[in-house]
Amino acid sequence: MAKLIRLNTVTRDGFHNAFTDMQFWNGCFWISYRKGATHISLDSQAIIACSADKCRFYEAAKIKIAGDVRDPKMVVVGPDRMALLVCVVPYGYEAEQLQQYICFSKDGVNFDEPKSILPPNHWLWRVVPFNGKYYGACYLDLPKKDPAAGGLHVRTQLMVSDDLLKWEKVSQIGQDDMALCETGMYFTQSQELWTVTRRNNESFAALLAIAKPPYTDWEYHHLNTSIEAPIIFEQGGVLYVSGRSHNVRDGRMDHPHAEPEGLAIWRLERGKVTSVLRLPAAGDCSYPGIAKDPSGRLFISYYSQHAYMDGVLPLPLHPEEIRVDHRGALLKPADIYFGEISLA
Fold first, then answer.
1. Cα–Cα distance between 154 and 197 in angstroms, integer?
2. Contact 99/116 with Cβ under 8 angstroms?
3. For residue range 166-201, what is the model confidence (pLDDT) as tens digits?
4. What is the pLDDT of residues 252-310, one digit of tens each?
């Protein structure tokens, strides 16, 4: 039976800590995340925390680029090289522009100067090494057909690189009107590429897309739930996907941000997902990272506001200081968590 074995708090400092990624590298667990005053704020920076004992984490690196730093993701290049990818909103959200950056480190502590890659408004959300190359799921903003309608209008595409600096498009995933964005990727032993993509149109049901080499022809399956910030992983010969969940019925979600919401893990099969575990998370939460130790034990990182929403901890801010975002959600502080899970 699937269960959460233990859960440690990585960061709890009154800031909005969010959007995690995790790698096991050189004998340590490394968690990257964004720290800022709120969910959206120009004071934000990327943080990398490190632990050798699966219990105590310390801030090993801080990377600040002018603007709002979003979704830091790590890529292990080799035993002596790690890359960090971040997307930055450089001029404030009124400018409606973002830029992708990358920087490298030999030790996870000292990083070189971030370099801009890709044209503006290309968000390289997740990168996976495979067969000596790097594959990335990139989504980009498109002009809205009806600006008065609002909402996201994006195109998601698979890209490939030899060095993480120069990227080429392989194919498009889905159609423009599907409003696809955040994408988890996994290459199977048979070299199939499985992707699960967050969907921000009226249905909100996540899209499973599967392709064989050269990854230009896609087989599509509409899943029976929404999955935001998806990450796909394997354990015991079975594929799983984790991310933020909302209820979806009959392929539609009447209230996209209504309860219940939180962090879940599903068994992923061709054409469907089956829920196997929900983790303690609520409010602005999820964006998990997954990593294994050398013995194959499975660990997850994520962020959540449940400690404040459940009254376990008092809010460090006065009520009049708590801002409200565009969805009407209170922007309470958020904490980073690290847990061990069993899916047996």
1. 12
2. yes
3. 999 999 999 877 888 999 999 999 999 999 999 877
4. 544 444 435 789 999 999 989 999 999 999 888 999 999 999 999 999 999 999 998 87
**Which candidate, 332, 334, 342, 344, places its Cα nearest to that of 302?**
334
| d(C-alpha 219, C-alpha 231), whole Å | 19
In the three-class reduction of DSSP (H, G, I as helix; E, B as strand; rest coil), residue 337 is classed as strand
Q: Give SS3 for 17.
A: strand
Q: Is 188 left (phi over 0), alpha (psi -120 to 50) or beta?
A: beta
Alpha-carbon distance of 217 to 32, in angstroms, equals 33
List the end-to-end C-alpha distance of the chain, in Å, as a whole number: 6
- Quick one: which of 144, 164, 162, 163 has its CA closest to 152? 144
Mean pLDDT of 70-98: 91
Contacts 24+ apart (CB under 8 A), 127-130: 127/73, 127/75, 127/83, 127/85, 127/164, 128/185, 128/186, 128/187, 129/75, 129/76, 129/77, 130/187
- Annotate 43-88 with DSSP letters as a single string: T-EEEEEEESSSS--EEEEEE--SSEEEEEEEEEEETTEEEEEEEE
- Using DSSP's 3-state secondary structure scheme, residue 153 falls into coil
Six token digits for residue 51? 């632990």
Joined together, the tokens standing for residue 245 give 């969940």
Task: Kindly list the distances between the CA atom of residue 183 and the CA atoms of 200, 258, 282, in Å, as whole numbers in the listed order.
Answer: 12, 22, 22
- pTM for the full predicted model: 0.91
Q: For residue 255, give every residue at least 6 positions away whose Cβ sits within 8 Å of its Cβ, in sequence order, or none.
A: none
Fold of 3-181+276-342: Tachylectin-2; Chain A (2.115.10)
What residues does each domain of the chain span? 3-181+276-342
Task: Return the SS3 of 254.
Answer: coil
